[in-house]
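Checklist before submission:
- one chain only
- standard amino acids only
- sequence pasted in full

Submission:
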Amino acid sequence: MEDDDYEARRLRDFRLNFEQQQKRAKELLKAARAGDPAATARFKGTPPKLAEAQFLIARELRFDSWAALKRHIAEMTLAHEAMSVSVLDGDLRTLHMRGGHDLINLSQQAGFRGGWYVDIYPYLEGPVREGPGCVEQRARFIIDTYRQDGDYEGQTRGLEEKERELQDSADYERVVLWFEHDCVCQLALIHLLGHYARHRRPPRLELVNISDFPGARYFSGLAELPPEALRLLWTTRKSVSEAQLQLGLEAWHALTNPDPRPLAAIVRRGTPALPLLGPALHRHLRELPSIANGLALTEELALRLMAQPPPHWDGIAKLSRIYWQMHESDPLPGRGDGAWARRVLSMETLSAPLFTRSPGGVDYAGRSNPPWTDTAAITETGRAVLCGEVDFRSLDPPSRWIGGVEVAAGQADWRWDEQLKDAVRR
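Returned file contents:
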């Protein structure tokens, strides 16, 4: 689902203009004084005043105050001006780490010159086991899922080379981990922390790990920020603590376990050393079949939107609409569109499909772009599964992985009990 306006929208959302925000505050105040109901409802004071209008605009963009908004814009402006004249990581031989390639170009624009290690394995979808044969198992999954005509032996060698690169990262003077709050990032983060807890580490191991960045109404990840924002975040990085290393190792061992209960125990206990980890692990565990109907949360949310599309859809549930709407209904969105589509479209292949799909729609540019422009309609079986009358697992769904847990016929029937916040075996 490519959006030609993504770059412009990203810069517009996070490169705030102070004069524009002043204008917005004055327009809000003017509307409230004119008696506009929506504007008036936002104000507590009577009569409405400019200071409160400014505060409302600042809070809308997730600042604590108008002064904080003004200060942030000034800092972003200075960082932007410095991008072409100063290198931030040139004082030490530095390696940056991330669970994707999306920051490499941005970091170069921002003025970073260190190398990059990308931990790209799909921890959210693929088998995550340790021990003999695990590399071959991961390589087979990658070939079967993404590169059906690929070279299995070459993929195995590639994974082995990535492991050697990770071992050699300790030779750098500084390693900086760049991560955000979603499941994809947090699972890659515990892999790296678990590695450094057990193996040689660099003299300086530092972490940027965020769930928000002010200046837009919604933050989904580091890659949507303009390059100068990375310069600001560089100043917030902190040394990785021993408590974080040990929690990362414990969570990694639990993730690779074919029994999901140790991971659930971490969620219930809390993860104060890594506050963003607990919610991500919780969301990850909700991909286990639900004790109520056998559906993973991703499957259930998609089916619910098919069963009851929002009014503004006019009854037409396109897959692209469902995907983006789930960013509002999902407690922790972050699954990429490819992984999401594989999970949802697999519901068409069951012994009794849960929805039907029809081509013929167009995207925002008037182009056909299947499957995203296809429309989906829930079946009676789909409705029966949603309300728990039929168990999803009884319809022969394809096998899949949730970390070290294989959800497949002939394997342990692990279910997620959201009320208990625990995995139970049926």
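Reviewer check: The chain has 17 helices and eleven strands.
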